[in-house]
Amino acid sequence: MPKTIISENTYFLAQKELKKLRNEGTLFKKLQSVKLAYEHGIKNTADFLGVFPVSIRNWAKAINEGDISSLKIGSKHKDGIKIKKHHKKQVKLWIEENPNISINSVKKMLEENFNLRICRSSVHNVMKSCGFSYITPRKNHYKQDKNEVVKFKKNTNQKEKDKKLKENIGFLMNLDLVLIVK
Fold first, then answer.
1. Structural domain span for residue 123
2. DSSP character for 56?
3. CB neighbour list of residue 36: distance below 8 Å, 6 or more residues apart
């Protein structure tokens, strides 16, 4: 066994952490590569896995120091690349002031107030993250029976016509009575 940075203790720590994980993810692969490097050497493992030997040494060093959490990949751009938290707060205020605000108007306001040039989809995502959603009515319900709708409209129209006719007849009768009285 060649002398390396990976000691027996490192090997057992990696093996112990591997038992806690599922067989997927970058942390699993890094721990597995350190374990393989202990068994087969860093150079052979690096060639086999297609990684640089320095990476395996750095991972082993992190395990030796007890800093396994540093092997995990954190999410990049938690705060956003262009749109920061203060931009989102301002967009939320604009939405609260005007609930009918459009994506284009928010985009324009961001350009004017913050000199921030972003695409419409980014503006839409910001508005969505602020709790904004367009609620538009459907023209018709997807389950409705079209024949029933036509029948209903015919009946409704006929009833309205009958009602107007009765009102007109009543109005005309009142006019006749008024004319007769005079």
1. 85-129
2. H
3. 45, 48, 49
